[in-house]
Design brief:
The complex is a heterodimer. By secondary structure, chain A is an alpha/beta fold. Chain A has 14 helices and 17 strands. Chain A has three domains: 148 residues, Roll (Ubiquitin-like (UB roll)); 162 residues, Rossmann fold (3-Layer(aba) Sandwich), CATH 3.40.50; 75 residues, no CATH class. In chain A, the strands form four sheets. A six-stranded mixed β-sheet of chain A has the order 1-14-13-17-15-16. Chain A has a four-stranded antiparallel β-sheet with strand order 2-8-7-4, with no helix packed on it. In chain A, strands 11-10-9-12 form a four-stranded parallel β-sheet, sandwiched between helices. The longest helix of chain A is centred in the last third of the chain and has 24 residues. Chain A is globular and about 65 Å long. In chain A, 58% of the residues are buried. Chain B is mainly alpha-helical. Chain B folds into two domains: 121 residues, no CATH class; 157 residues, no CATH class. Chain B is built from 15 helices and two strands. Chain B has a two-stranded antiparallel sheet. In chain B, strand 1 and strand 2 form a beta hairpin. In chain B, helix 2 runs parallel beside helix 4. Classes of the chains: A alpha/beta, B mainly alpha. At the A-B interface, strand 7, strand 15, strand 16, helix 10 and helix 13 of A face helix 1 of B.
Chain lengths: 445, 329
Amino acid sequence: MIKSFRGGIHPNGSKNYTASKSIEIATLPSKVVIPVSQHIGAPCVPIVAKGDCVKKGQVIATSPAFVSSPVHASISGTVKDIALYPHPVFGKCLSIVIENDGLDEWIEGIPLTRDWEKLNAQEIKGIIKEAGIVGMGGATFPTFVKLSPPKDKKIDTFILNAAECEPFLTADHRMMLEHSDKIAIGVKLVMKVLGVEKAFVGIEDNKPDAVIAMQKAFEGTTVKVMAIPTKYPQGAEKMLIKVLADREVPSGSLPMDVGVVVQNVGTVVAICDAVVNGIPLIERVTTISGSAIKEPKNLLLRIGTSFEDAIENCGGFNEPPAKIIMGGPMMGFAQSNLNISIIKGVSGILALTKKDINNGTQSPCIRCGKCVSVCPCGLNPSMLSILGEKDMYEEAKLEQNLFDCAECGSCVYVCPAKRNIVQYIKYSKMRNNADAAKKKEALAK
Amino acid sequence: MSEVKLQENLFTVTTSPHIRAEASISKIMWSVSLALTPAALFAIYHFGTPALFVILAGSLSAVGFEYLVQKLRKKPITISDGSAFLTGLLLSMCLPPSIPPYMAVIGSFLAIVVAKHAMGGLGYNIFNPAHIGRAALMVSWPVAMTTWTNLSGKVDIVSSATPLNILKQQGYSKLIDTFGSAPQMYKDMFLGFRNGSIGETSTILLLIGGIYLIYKGYANWVVPAFMIGTVGILTWICGPTGLFTGDPLFHMMAGGLIIGAFFMATDMVTIPITKKGQIVFAIGAGVITVLIRLKGGYPEGVCYSILLMNAVTPLIDRFMKPVKFGARG
């Protein structure tokens, strides 16, 4: 029996929209808008100019910084514009607009075939870095950085995060069914880079077909495929590590501090493509779903495709959506319009109606304690929301472990008083950070 | 650098999460009232129309007072959320069936206006409003609050006193005599054929309501289990003729313990928010109940025990914080 993590919720999975639909290749967009910052870390600087002709897979922006990741052209065509464009996470970002020439030509040298089993760890890591691979579950942390832990951190376990606990999303699920061979190679490559023997694949038990596919793919290896009880936020790194490796990442520390590295399904598929065939990260599988979408699908989309083009591939809307979300409904980012680019971290695009959202009017906390019992981080969300409401953010930090909140949203989901708990928590964090920045500035003077 | 090429805002933009469960305050409150309904209906059957009048006066006036106060405070009117009705219902179920209904109205006034809205309204009150109403009436009209319906002829017991009264004043053997035999006593107390406050007599119907609430997730099992358990264990240990000679079964079913443990001590607003805190609360309430019953001047102590533990709830919350993830290392 697997011991689950503390707390958590069971929202309606809503995965039926797309769980049984094969990954479909989207029609090529007439243009792509590629932001130079699609990762956590230093933004890249464009190395192409307006009017340049670029080929698919060509590097168009790079950065000398360690924590960064290069950006490639996802179609062949002409650079039309380099300017600020809307960005799904940062609001706006310097972006490179490429007009499609319809030829979809690779840059010379790609694709190729590498004898991946002969590569050493350093070579693999180099390829991952050059291919612009970042965490594709949504965090978009540069993958090669995650695979380069400091010398004093001894890594002994690799975990493939295949939980996909967010409602609606099925991209990882479909990849496990359709690309199990690539996942097996990708995991082997990561294990080689990390030099570990022990590895787990954590899949929620609401995807039994994926569990079988993975068990088959990893037959006869040291990789253990585990079906774990479905519960949100299973896919949070710290929760998954607790469940699979029975290690609790100390507050304020990283998974590598307990000897574990976690990667998402989409990321290892991208690693396989990059290492075996030399293909950089220029496309990704994204779930387009929600009750406002006519034909929900799992689409293989080029980076830089607009949300509008992606939804067009699904027949458009069947009723006016109230919210458009990048990612899942629990932690995704709401968008104001459809003129937004798909970036490397877009695991889903959801079009939700008013009925899906089920918002209500916020009323005072009745202290029912539901939030406390579902909080996977062991906090008192009720108190944090009250302190946030009263602008007592310092007390929230000092006495209520404000910064341990992972913002998973479980508390908001269950709250009968419809309180905006996570919203207050984010606000309190911002106020604390602003104060800290001010203090730092004053010290510098 | 050129301006950002933004389109107009077409969709609602908020931070995550974007979906919520269907739970709501009114669902919780009306469910608790529903859970009390069987016991209330039995009370009307058992005690007759006076009980009905007290219940109606208490619950309806509570709703009326809530409306008036919210009007005066210029707050949104939330009488439809059921919390005022529930307070009035709970209060009247803790009153003797024979009291004049106007006293129930005054009790509701104290519960809603003083205990609830003077503290800030739903969610901000420190004390259980229904119990404040009852305690205030107890102090104001001690005779009316301790005069019990004469049930002679209605049931096969001859008594105008509650079982706990008889125990306090005449002792355990007299108590058994009143019912005829010990098994008969347990049976009558379990089914509800005894004297007492309107809603407290039928153990089985209150249990059904309480279990329904626990099943629905609107109350947790921790508080009733620990409170009733504590009373059982302590009354068994501290028996009338030496250690371990008590009658825990009688004490667990007697007085307002069942209704108090399942419906008052589970009032979310006035009890600790963590499970650990709730255990401390429940044990504390159990200990005080037993102290009052066995050593105090009153025959029953559930109401005061819960109010006293309400008072230390903020303190319990301060010391019994949840342990954050990663603190154990």
